[in-house]
Each structure stands twice: as structure tokens, then as C-alpha cells.
Amino acid sequence: MASGGSAIRGSRVGAGPMGEQDHGHHADRVAVSYWDARGNETVRYFAANLPAEEIPDVIDSPSTGLPAGRDRNNPPAVQKTEPYKTHLAYVKERRTDEEAAQLLDEALKQLRIRRGKIPADS
What we know:
It is a single chain. With about 120 residues, the protein is α+β, with helices and mostly antiparallel strands. Among the domains are: about 40 residues, no CATH class; about 40 residues, no CATH class. It is built from two helices and four strands; from the N terminus they run ββββαα. Strands 1-2 form a two-stranded antiparallel sheet. A two-stranded antiparallel ribbon has the order 3-4. It is elongated and about 100 Å long. About 5% of the residues are buried.
């Protein structure tokens, strides 16, 4: 048996010539560049018939996670995230110390009335 190979080995039945470029219709598209604060460029492709207002102005850079914008000289700044607030922190934002003391006194009075430690009419 000869060591030469068959011309059809490894190809699909009915396949055209190798390197065939016509594998369907390619939609027209537009390349949009985004830059992050470190100067990294990310290119995203969008359909050419997409309205300009539907193309995002800011994306997350896949390499750094930073926000990336379309203006190379003025990339978006990293937004400062606020630390987690406890319930008590939110309550302290809404109430003054005097209001908190008054509410505490009223709640303690109601508790003492329920427990019978002070009369209800006081």
C-alpha cells in the first residue's frame, strides 16, 4: 500500500475547495473603540444598521474591569463605591440624637406598662 493519502480524507462529503470563503452572508458591521483609564483599547463590533443611540458610550474593560469610554483622551473615571451601611447607620442619618432618645423613652415606657411595672395612665 502506498503512503500517499486520499484527497478526501478529513473533509466533508460535498465540501467545496479548501479555503472556501463563502460560508454564508456576513452582516455589515462597524467597529467601535473604547479606552479605559490605563490606556487599554477594547474594540466592540456592532451591526452597521444599529442606531447610534443604541451603541453604549461606556463598557467594562475586559482586561482591567475599569469603565471604558469612546473618548481616548478623556476615559471615564472609576466610580467610587460606598461602603456597606448597617441598618443603624441609615437610622442615624434620619434621626437626631434627641429624637432617638425620645423614641427610646417612649418604647421603654410602653414595655414597662405591658410588664405591669408602671400603671397605664402615667
